[in-house]
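[Help] Beginner question about ligand-bound structures

Sorry if this is basic. My supervisor gave me a protein sequence and a SMILES string for H2B and asked me to "get the holo structure". I don't really know what that means in practice or what format the answer should be in. Inputs are pasted below exactly as I got them.
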Amino acid sequence: MTTTAEQLTKKKCAPCEGGVPPLSSKEAQELASNVEGWAISADGKVIRREWTAKNFVAAMAFLNNVAELAEEEGHHPDLHLVGYRNLAIELTTHAIGGLSENDFILAAKINRVPVATKG
Ligand SMILES: C[C@H](O)[C@H](O)[C@H]1CNC2=NC(N)=NC(=O)C2=N1
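Answer (accepted):
No worries, everyone starts somewhere. Holo just means with the ligand present. The predicted complex, written as structure tokens, is below.
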């Protein structure tokens, strides 16, 4: 049994300064399939999710809330805002050059941050 999104949200990102192997592609695929909306990159080193916010203010509010969450967790995403309201977040564990459980913990927690979308 793999870790569910619910279980991931109860965990805390562990400090990572390297020295541990990245998740295997099987482990990463299992976790990704449990965390809605996140896809693994072709090279297997990054997970990414995209959103279209209602407007610029909604996009910035979301990014600021994600930044606060990331700081609390001590694990930091690449945040992208393109064309004023198109959002993408990428997660990787820089210290190990690949994916760790931290990326999936943060992804599951980001999924709980509200974002006002169009429509
Ligand atoms: C000790 C502390 O956990 C590390 O410096 C953290 C900080 N935030 C980080 N964020 C990400 N995405 N990858 C890292 O390797 C990383 N390292």
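A couple of things worth pointing out: The mean pLDDT is 97. Helices lie at 5-9, 25-34, 56-73, 101-110. Feel free to follow up in the thread.
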